[in-house]
């Protein structure tokens, strides 16, 4: 059984701690992740901006990297969601289309894999803090990952989970949107941050480092000391106490 | 410029958005009302109980109708003509305007009372009527306010959403020639009294059309103020303008639409007035027009037929739910989109109706692709995907931004090969030393200018994940627990199901 880690470029370059938490946590359940070194980026920046030729070139590295894997696990609903776009991306290239369909079927977002495949909802974590959760759009809306993180968080002992007002609203990241439409994106992240602060939470948790980097960046810009974590990190920290 | 050509507001979507972002009144007013409508919709959908099933029914009805649009349009036209309606087809906006003006001239009309209609906004019909000396009077409260202000609607169903009641009181006071208090009852009371006279003296009543029923040739209007009922009963002539895609096959299908539309639009279980009109006044009728015209407008709609990526756009029932759910619309309002239709539907519809002309396509960039529009849509139009297709068509037609094109080529070169990708991370780790202070990057220049105007960028750690992996993998191998037999067999089962074509576990609907 080959279970591979699709690290995503953000976690690879900026947040290796998220990948490490995932690897160590899954090992507790007998899943030793494999890491194909030839993987790069899912190609979403090019795909969403309309540069599909470039997106295909990038996507091929991912299709190649995970060819032999039985399961592919990623710490991002958005990058997993991008893999769901691969069949559309390769609709006119039959040989790649087939590989794209196969990769789509075996790709899982981290909490999906934990809950749906491993059947784990209680990792035995203790985390005595006030926490609020931002459900990222692509994971929750497009992949439908809604119940899994809630189940996992519900079982964390000592943790007070405060609902985030207007939680389902986009944080304003949107990839190149944050660069091209910087002022609209800025207004969106400012509002999201206001809501995070309203909860009085010490920790903001989520499932996508892109969104979390956006909100964390704005929190830091405003000198607000809210700690921002991926749920994998929170769970791993909670079992390592 | 012909009367019908779309008016492009000056500047780019970005410039127009900046105007809105600096207008606190607008942002507060838009936030307030979209929140109320969105909350109402969510509550109504939850109370309905089988919302998603009904959405799917609605989608199927629309998919079927649009797939057989020629058939249903002919059926509708035949039946409407049998009812005594003059049915006209207008291929372009200019033709629709010409047809409308010809009727007004023949009837020697001085005034036209109008109920709310987005298609007449699309045609800029008020200005055209004015050019031949016919006064057009909007009778929907929001439209009346917008007309007084000399503006266009900034929302599909709430035209004056960007104004608060103080601004509205100011406009209406100027109209009344006396000071009206900013109290909704007083303001609505003033407009009601004023419009009553206009209804009585109008020569023509002009309407849009929410649904056209093919099986009986009837047209159906949904409204809350009763003004559309006045428009369709008092004047001697009625002109209805409808987009060619407004058709549904039967009254039975209307039940589904009447369930979806008001709930999605405002959270109402039922609209206050729903009028079904089947032809002009008959002898036994108490009221109604003596002469009735229906102008069926194409104006770019048929361009979507047979386009697998955009045909579903014609399924739209104009409820405005995508606007209310959109986090971008919430901050910039409708005028920033620059066209008649705003919000996510406008961002797709405006370029699509213009044959995806490149100069329109920058509106497609005003979205973070969060999918809230798709989730809110009562007929499940994948607007977030269509926005990406628009961007792709722009690039493929050679109209991509040059800097961005170069950047994307670079991206593909780096991300297309793991060695280059690793090299880029290394380069970043080294190169950032010039700009990192206290573990973060604050410089507001180059590609980081926009981003860092609102955020602080984290620096790259010394070791990337792939750098760490060499030691991490060994450590994890040593400390890993065995995989339980039960889990292993579940995983093997999943792999087998997948090979048979199953194994779905959530994903794009």
Automatic annotation (TrEMBL), chain A:
GO terms for cellular component: cytosol. Residues 3-83, 131-215 form the Cysteine-rich domain. One of its GO terms (molecular function) is oxidoreductase activity. It holds the Pfam family CCG. PANTHER family: LACTATE UTILIZATION PROTEIN A, UNCHARACTERIZED PROTEIN YKGE. This is Fe-S oxidoreductase. It comes from Paenibacillus sambharensis.
TrEMBL record, chain B:
Pfam families: Fer4_8, LUD_dom. InterPro entries: 4Fe4S_Fe-S-bd, 4Fe4S_Fe_S_CS, FTHF_cligase-like_sf, Helical_ferredxn, LUD_dom, LutB/LldF, NagB/RpiA_transferase-like. GO terms for molecular function: 4 iron, 4 sulfur cluster binding; metal ion binding. SUPFAM superfamilies: alpha-helical ferredoxin (SSF46548), NagB/RpiA/CoA transferase-like (SSF100950). Keywords: 4Fe-4S, Electron transport, Iron, Iron-sulfur, Metal-binding, Repeat, Transport. It comes from the Bacteria. Residues 306-337 form the 4Fe-4S ferredoxin-type domain. One of its GO terms (biological process) is lactate metabolic process. The keyword Methyltransferase does not apply. PANTHER family: LACTATE UTILIZATION PROTEIN B. This is Iron-sulfur cluster-binding protein.
